[in-house]
Amino acid sequence: MSSGTRRAAVTKTDLRVAVRDGEQLLLTLGLPVLFLVFFSLVDVLPTGTDDPVDFLAPGILALALLSVAFVRLSISLGFDIGFGAIRRFGVTPLRVGEFLAAKLTTTAVLFAVQLAILGLVAVLLGWRPSVSPLLIPAIVLGLIAFVGLAFALTGVVDGLAALAVANALYVVMLLLSGLVFELDRLPGFLAAIVKVLPSTALAELFRETLSGSAGPAWAWVCLAAWAVAAPLVGAKLFRWG
To answer: What is the pLDDT of residues 138-193, one digit of tens each?
Structure first.
């Protein structure tokens, strides 16, 4: 069996599980749609725009990528390791790099579905994006960074611990990364600190590239650094069981 065939088999299995798992669908699609609709129609967040959906849509898309590439994958890997499912892969010719690539492919497919559905909902709410071609590299860097972080996290903790830590980090990044409100609303020292988070850089790049702009240099450098470092650390820490 070739390397490509092995990756395809893992990807197919992972997609089937994701589609059938109601909790994963709620996390990766239900909650982002709920946040987008509610906060677009109920003007309670300080977005700094005339129409809240103009600010919220890019942030919610970034949140969707975070939920599918980091939280969903961390929880899935954590429980698979805890229950011994990952250990079975360790006795096959499948390599860690191939396994990581398969998970990245699965995540990319799931995010494409998220992007289509959330984009349609946002347009129905009045959003009119001006998409820059630089959105594509921003998505790619974000996917690589957060999938790598998921592997790194589950290389340290698994099972219920992965569930708890991933959800805690999700809440922190949701509240502090400028996903649903402007970074300027944070105290100056805190705003400077959270700029090193990949979620902050991703939200900024989504917001700018979906407005037709290139985005700030600091966000590209930050997200690119995470996209390089996270997979390397994840591959080093990941274990088959």
So the answer is: 999 999 999 999 999 998 987 778 888 998 998 888 888 887 777 777 777 787 88
Q: How many CA atoms does the CB half-sphere of 14 hold within 13 Å? A: 27
Give the integer Cα–Cα distance in Å for 40 and 177: 18
Query: Which of 241, 240, 221, 68 is CA-nearest to residue 150?
Result: 68
Give the three-class secondary structure for 131. coil
Contact (Cβ atoms closer than 8 angstroms) between residue 73 and residue 147: yes
Count CA atoms within 13 Å of residue 59 on its CB side: 24
**CB neighbour burial string for 94-117, b if at least 16 within 10 angstroms, e if fewer:** bebebbbbbbbbbbbebbeebeee
Long-range contact set of residues 212-215: C-beta below 8 Å, sequence gap at least 24: 212/130, 212/131, 212/132, 213/132, 214/132, 214/134, 215/134, 215/138
CB-based contacts of 32, cutoff 8 Å, min separation 6? 60, 61, 63, 64, 67, 114, 118
pTM reported for the whole predicted model = 0.88
Number of domains within the chain = 1
Site of tokens 């088999």: 9
Tell me the one-letter amino acid at 227: A
Rounded to 5°, angle at Cα 137 from 39 and 148: 85
Query: In angstroms, rounded to a whole number, what is the distance separating the alpha carbons of residues 61 and 229?
Result: 23
Expressed as residue numbers, the domain containing 145 is 3-237
pLDDT digits (tens, 9 = 90+) for 39-80: 788 776 655 556 788 888 999 999 999 999 999 999 888 888
